[in-house]
Write a structure and sequence with these properties.
Helices cover 34% and strands 20% of the residues. It has 391 residues and is an alpha+beta fold. It has two domains: 3-139, Creatinase/prolidase N-terminal domain (Creatine Amidinohydrolase, Chain A, domain 1, 3-Layer(aba) Sandwich), CATH 3.40.350; 142-387, Creatinase/methionine aminopeptidase superfamily (Creatine Amidinohydrolase), CATH 3.90.230.10.
């Protein structure tokens, strides 16, 4: 835990303290930011970092070692009355504290503290505000090593997609059966060979299934992949190493020598929208302009709305990327939520607009990394639907 940096950030945000709380491992963010192991947690614990001075911790007597690794004065409780009394004393004199709370649950990744605990803290005359910006500072920024691991994973993920297209081509030419589920399993097998891992398997979607943004192929209902089919591959993975972060992209292809005009037309609209978002981020980063997640979503969505497909863009423009594929930094979102967090150096996120029709859907996804000098796409950028049988 970087106590000095946390306290400096609290003073800059004009906050009196950051109050961490957990019960039954509800707040994974707390463990990562405080750099403590996930231990037995059948009783509630609290840890307050003031903007200046010594931190304090409150733990149950039968789990007194829960926060032993953290600095600060220790308070103990056993009864609920003692817990309330000690927490009140620990917060005495503090007017504004941050917690993993999101007003109206606008950012559910951060909205981890239950409403009752927020009510309890407020009953002591303390104003609870969201820790979302603080979480981004201490959870979402990457180290140089994390960026290197991301780029390594990207090379392997792109190779997985190329291999998947090659397998489709081989099966189509040989007249062999290959379905969505079988191809998904082959990509997972490739992960294992290349030292990659993923929380969930990749999306392999054919024809109408590609019109479902989160389609998951099953062994029994998977569609065969045949000549003349449209294919969407959404592939995400990270290196199997401590501190690794994800690489997450989506590519599309057509099982044939020449891509039909309809597929190319829809892809071109999605590509324009994707590139509008990337350009906005790069321009703002170069000029030092503060850019917020919802503004990127607005720009990307406007490009699709102008072409008459706004109602077919069914999700946010992009998500934060970290050790979890959906990280805890700013999301490119003014659709599912209103994410007003600023894009800050050291963070990465996807830009992935899509148009989802009844017969097929197109998504084009890239990862964008922001640093002090600007912003860049960290992998290859698809410029047209891949004709899988060409050449």
């Amino acid at each position: 835990m970087d106590l000095k940096a946390i306290q400096e950030s609290l003073r800059e945000a004009q906050l009196d303290a950051w109050l961490f709380y957990d019960h039954h491992h509800r707040d994974a963010i707390a463990y990562r930011i405080l750099k403590i192991p996930v231990a037995l947690c059948t009783r509630r614990w609290y840890y307050v970092i003031p903007s200046s001075g010594e931190p304090e911790k409150l733990v149950h007597r039968i789990e007194a070692a829960s926060l032993a690794a953290l600095p600060g004065r220790e308070r103990l409780y056993a009864s609920w009355r003692a817990q309330h009394d000690e927490l009140r004393a620990m917060l005495a004199g503090r007017k504004r504290v941050a917690m993993e709370y999101s007003p109206l649950n606008a950012i559910p990744y951060v909205g981890l503290v239950d409403a009752g605990t927020v009510e309890l803290v407020r009953s002591f005359g303390v104003d609870v505000v969201s820790s979302a910006e603080l979480v981004q500072l201490f959870e979402a920024r990457w180290t140089d090593e994390a960026l290197s691991l991301h780029l390594e994973a990207g090379i392997a993920v792109h190779a997985a997609i190329r291999q998947a297209f090659a397998m489709i081509a081989e099966a189509a030419r040989a007249g062999k059966r290959l379905d969505e589920y079988q191809l998904q399993r082959e990509i997972v097998r490739f992960y294992e060979e290349k030292g990659l891992e993923s929380e969930e398997p990749p999306i392999v979607a054919v024809n109408a299934h590609s019109g479902n943004p989160h389609y998951v192929p099953g062994e029994r209902d998977a569609l065969p992949i045949r000549r003349g089919d449209f294919v969407l591959l959404d592939v995400w993975a990270k290196r199997r190493a401590p501190g690794s972060v994800y690489f997450d992209i989506t590519w599309t292809g057509f099982v044939g020598e020449q891509v039909p005009t309809r597929y190319s037309e829809i892809f071109e609209i999605v590509r324009e929208a994707r590139d509008a978002g990337v350009q906005l981020v790069q321009t703002a980063s170069r000029s030092g302009q503060v850019l917020r997640g919802y503004e990127v979503d607005d720009a990307v969505r406007a490009a699709i709305v102008r072409r008459g497909y706004g109602e077919h863009f069914l999700h946010r423009t992009g998500h934060s990327i970290g050790e979890d594929v959906h990280g805890n930094g700013a999301n490119m979102d003014n659709f599912e939520t209103h994410d007003a967090r600023a894009l800050i150096p050291g963070t990465c996120f996807s830009i992935e607009p899509g148009i989802y029709l009844e017969e097929f859907g197109v998504r084009s996804e890239v990862d964008v990394y922001v640093d002090q000098s600007g912003a860049r796409v960290t992998g290859e950028v698809q410029q047209a639907v891949v004709p899988i049988l060409a050449g």
